[in-house]
């Protein structure tokens, strides 16, 4: 089973070195492709001569789809740049893929804030309860199935949510690894009230999408922080 790790990047010089540290135990045991959407900071300089970089128009869905098209793996593992993967990531994916055609990691944060712990519990429970996984949980999927369902919808936001809904509509069960991916809490700045506002906003945006509000309108509310 060959695994391709596909990582979209855009102005990630503050996170990419830590990610590369966690990728080191996996290097040369799988295919690792970075797909850059036109970074203007030091991201590309940090990646130079270390990993293959594919150029793509900006947009997480576009970048991930471009990486998938140029990859060669039997399993596609889509990883956010502000994540840290366990050293056992490949073995855990292989274990899940023996029984499933798609799955993800659970999520965790380095923060000891009670709110972030609550966010972690809710996010991981959502996979089992509502059969929905988000991109920061490290989605992985059988290559053939990925292209069968039409890849990620090329939307400015919520592409991972719609992708999960598509898998759910097709009755594709989701597997989950034993260990977690640590991801950045950079969206959740400020005190607990401010963190709650961010979580409320995320839920509101998904509800708007389910109610038929165009993703382009939703993207104007959920601004890019880079």
TrEMBL record:
CDD domains: GT_2_like_a
Listed GO biological process terms: carotenoid biosynthetic process
GO MF, one annotated term: glycosyltransferase activity
GO cellular component, one term: plasma membrane
Top-level taxon: Bacteria
SUPFAM superfamilies (alphabetical): Nucleotide-diphospho-sugar transferases
Domain Glycosyltransferase 2-like: 4-125
Chief location: membrane
Family affiliation: Belongs to the glycosyltransferase 2 family. CrtQ subfamily.
Job description of the protein: Catalyzes the glycosylation of 4,4'-diaponeurosporenoate, i.e. the esterification of glucose at the C1'' position with the carboxyl group of 4,4'-diaponeurosporenic acid, to form glycosyl-4,4'-diaponeurosporenoate. This is a step in the biosynthesis of staphyloxanthin, an orange pigment present in most staphylococci strains.
Protein name: 4,4'-diaponeurosporenoate glycosyltransferase
Taxonomic path: Bacteria, Bacillati, Bacillota, Clostridia, Lachnospirales
